[in-house]
């Protein structure tokens, strides 16, 4: 019998960053002193940092080498042209406006397109997109399929837009919809993928109503990998082919290069329409910088250009998505409730099932995040009531259907041993779940409140 070799990292580790170990008592004090806000911890007080996969990737030797080739040209940087060529080759768009990060691309696109009272349909808005729509007096509308809200539904593409609802919505509100968006993978819904059939379907509907269609492409390569694994007709296609097909159905994309471009900073807006390029690059001068650097140093654009070409490597993606699944499978083994199937960049703990005794107004996912930090020095991020903010009309908490603690895995950073530590720490918190109490605000900022909120513990 020939044993199949286990799948391991398709790279060697060349540089390491030592991390601090802390005691449980120290961590309990530190988190209390921040007002129970995980964003306020110092990174040196965290052992395994799962706050985000954004800007936290380990860059490759090729990317670091590219950093040395960064030029400092204000205009016409060679690195901009390398970035443009990478976007044209990998994604197929004609024009690129570099930006300092993803939300800046959202700002440019939505500032040009949105008028007061306009709707933006999306499968599910991520918080920065939602905040930009609201900031421009627009109304974000989430039209994801219902399966997305069932944490144990095994539907393979829980990020899909509900096409029927999109079509009805456009038929009713056509005048007030300037563009249609789709977030791949769907971060607010558990990192769940969107199928090619759905991208094609959204594109057809957008065309029918003559609306531009933009993808929020932060995690486009992970999405392509799921299409290859799960969708009929794609098993024998290469990842670059799948990526090109995904983008062939859209007019452009917003991109945070801090995710699937494997870079530590940066983003861009890409599109095919020259008029939109002229308008958005003009606005970029005001908010980002000259359109051939967009708030980035040449070296950062070079790292993005190289990362975009690297990320579509299938072996890398098999390792990447495989590691996230490894953690998910361990948690399932320990009976810890998670959103299933496991997404592309993170495992999401289901706080409603984890802490059923805490109502949403007591921020159960945040309370869970605090306990996991105390237990193992592990920092997750709340994707729940605090992040969701207040409803613009009622001013009550805008309670999300899913209340989650996201354990976001940085790319190429942690080993499977780290995944085992995380799983055991979660299992220990699960065992003492009944003793966990809720939280209430002592400070709340008006926008993106989760970054600075302060809480106190409620009694039993
Ligand atoms: C994240 F706590 N995501 O998931 P920028 N679209 C999508 C994103 O996931 C995204 C952006 C646009 C982050 C970072 C983050 O409250 C938070 O480059 C689908 O971060 O501007 C970012 O890209 C924006 C974490 C953002 C947060 C906002 O961890």
From TrEMBL:
One of its GO terms (molecular function) is tyrosine phenol-lyase activity. InterPro entries: ArAA_b-elim_lyase/Thr_aldolase, Beta-eliminating_lyase, PyrdxlP-dep_Trfase, PyrdxlP-dep_Trfase_major, PyrdxlP-dep_Trfase_small, Tryptophanase_CS. PROSITE patterns: BETA_ELIM_LYASE. GO terms for biological process: aromatic amino acid metabolic process. It comes from Psychracetigena formicireducens. Keywords: Lyase, Pyridoxal phosphate. Gene3D superfamilies: Aspartate Aminotransferase, domain 1, Type I PLP-dependent aspartate aminotransferase-like (Major domain). This is Tyrosine phenol-lyase. Belongs to the beta-eliminating lyase family. Pfam families: Beta_elim_lyase.
